[in-house]
Amino acid sequence: MRKDWTCRLACLAVAAWVATAALAQGRPAQEHEDKDEEKSGTDVLTPLLEQRISGKVSADDVIVDIRWPFEGLYSSTRVYGSGVGIWRREFQIRLPRTEVRRLLKVLVSNHFGSLPGSFGADEGPNEKSLKGRIVVSVGPVTKLVSQADTGDQSAVLQAIAEEFLRASKKAAAHTVGASSLLNGLEKISAGTLAPEVLRVNVRRRVATVGGEGWLLRMNGRRVYDELVEKVGLPGSARVLVLSSKDFGTLVQVLRDSNPATLPQSLYAAQYTDVVIQLLNQFRHIQARQFAGMTAQTNGAKQAAFDRALDALTALHARAQKEGRVVPIPDQTQSESEERERERKEEEREREREGGPDGDRDDAKPMSPTPPSPGTP
């Protein structure tokens, strides 16, 4: 059931049992940690990962996102099943498919799919006590496990995070970045950057009564599109994978609009929210019927936005027509909650990495005993 029109992300908090592990020479070992852990739900993630490890299903829909202290620095990596990665939210890296498969096996052998949603403080990690977290997505299924910097520490979570960060650091010997959003879009068109580094989210409410609307998430060539029906009615979701040609056409439209130069507030007949992220380049545009603003107020910039929005709206319609139906899990988290969580995490990371100006992760080493993420 839905209480609002916004998309609900799958955040499965399943906990069958908790294991601890240490990776010795790249091989995980497990042992039971707490026999009193309550069982809740079923591990739906592991079977999906095993299918992709075996090659029965393409691993291109796998995303593993990690933010964790590593070698004295607070670090982050995002690894896609295709082998493309994003190191410290700033650079593209590439890992061999064999290495990606090995890392997915680390998730399976350490029973990540059966871990509880959080470790540490009894009240659960909050924005001031979060040490790190791991998010694994396979298609429409997403699982997040977080670790507070106080209370019980999970050796399993630590081992998984270190394996992915170590592999990503090795791949970071060869990186590609973007000096601006436009520069990044140009590099995607040229093939220098992979499609996976581009993420576009569009939320649109098409009715003011009842909460109807839709949400489109484009992560590279993979498009997830969800219809949100009236309050109290279930929505529906579809997935569409764009061809390289169609993806390139859309990137060209975004390039022509030069989104980084567009005003943050623009006109739209319906409430519209557009977020474009490419590595560390980010643009968030809100469009609706603002007081004193018309479709002509911002002239050419409004026209550029409208062309981009028309292309994204057409993509939504195509996904609904041609996309494969996927389930929307019952245990979910709203899009606005997810975005707010990510925003707060990134603010805390910038504080630890080098202050509010967002210096690179290696600008400020962590102290021997890392302070709380909320501590300046």
Question: Layout of SSEs?
Answer:
Blueprint: E1 8-10, E2 19-24, E3 27-32, H1 45-54, E4 62-70, E5 73-80, E6 84-87, E7 91-94, H2 97-109, E8 118-119, E9 130-138, E10 141-148, H3 155-171, H4 181-190, E11 198-205, E12 213-219, E13 222-228, E14 236-241, H5 244-257, E15 265-267, E16 272-278, E17 281-288, H6 299-322, E18 324-326, E19 332-334, H7 335-353
Helix pairs in contact: 1-2, 2-3, 4-5, 5-6
Distance between the termini: 40 Å
What fraction strand?
Answer: 25-35%
Give the helix proportion (percent range).
25-40%
What is the number of helices?
A: 7
Strand order of the largest sheet: 15-17-16-11-12-13-14-18
Classification by helices and strands: alpha+beta
Radius of gyration: 21 Å
The tally of strands reads 19
Mean model confidence by pLDDT: 79
Helix-strand string = EEEHEEEEHEEEHHEEEEHEEEHEEH
Largest sheet: 8 strands, mixed
Number of domains: 2
Q: What is the approximate shape?
A: globular
Quickly describe the structure.
This protein is an alpha+beta fold and 376 residues long. Helix content is 28%, strand content 30%. It has seven helices and 19 strands.
